[in-house]
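Hello Y.,

Per our agreement to keep a running log of every chain we model this quarter, I'm adding this entry. I've kept the format consistent with earlier entries: sequence first, then predicted structure.
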Amino acid sequence: MCLTNDSTFPGFILVGFSDRPQLELVLFGVILCLYLMMLLGNVAIILVSLLDSKLHTPMYFFLSRLSLLDLCFTSSIIPQLLVNLGGSDKSITYGGCVVQLYVSLALGSTECVLLAVMSYDRYITVCRPLHYAFAMHPSLCHTLASVAWLSGVATTLIQSTLTLQLPFCGHHQVDHFVCEVPVLIKLACVETTFNQVELFAASVLFLVVPLSLILISYGHIARAVLKIKSAIGRHKAFGTGSSHLMVVIIFYGTIIFMYLQPAKSRPKDQGKFVSLFYTVVTPILNPLIYTLRNKEAKAAMKKILGRTLWLSEHDYQEFFYF
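Predicted structure for the entry above:
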């Protein structure tokens, strides 16, 4: 009999890397360290963007939103992954899987749109500097950020709901470490052509289209940079731009591989390792590439850290004085 997808459903077994116990121990240590670094880096970016008035610009407005997205996105996946890697219990409740599916898909889709918006901001900065104040005024920035969030929520309400309506017929072993639409569709015991077509259409809309817009923006940026007469200026601009583009390609490329490639054509564990890139690697690269290499951000961090240390030392001296 097919089990109905309601609160009585026992849940799922996230197989993950359980067939490689030694690899699990290595991944646990590496992912835990990366997760802590990601938390520290993104929290620092958010605080600096809020506390330093010099960073109240459209670029840091979007960067702080990206950091918040990365914090929430990784926190919806990595804690469960660490539990999975660190113990013998590989289960996740049906409710836990539902929450993870809705939240991670909403945040991931939002980030796909937000990265395209950030590339537009960078295009205006480099190619239309005289129009920047008009083109990226605060109300437009808030509107673009809201569109990104609303589009993410809309796609997860559609995709996740359609996926959870499928009967799983007692199939509860998920050959992955996270509840994602492609792996859950594979568990269905009915025809899933409609779900596959809907997933493909959504993937094109949220992956291929934003990536195309980003590449077009960076193409215009590269053409503008080539016009810079200073070799040092060109080298610096290309270094920064190539770093940004590298992270974008890793993020979109790995998700496109996971969501657009037919599941049957992938080797058994390939999808799991690819998923680690957009769930673990790019969230730690974002603060390193986008902000921590930026002189303004580093100067703001040093100023805030110095002020904090001075206040702490001042309070310490006052305590002993009294």
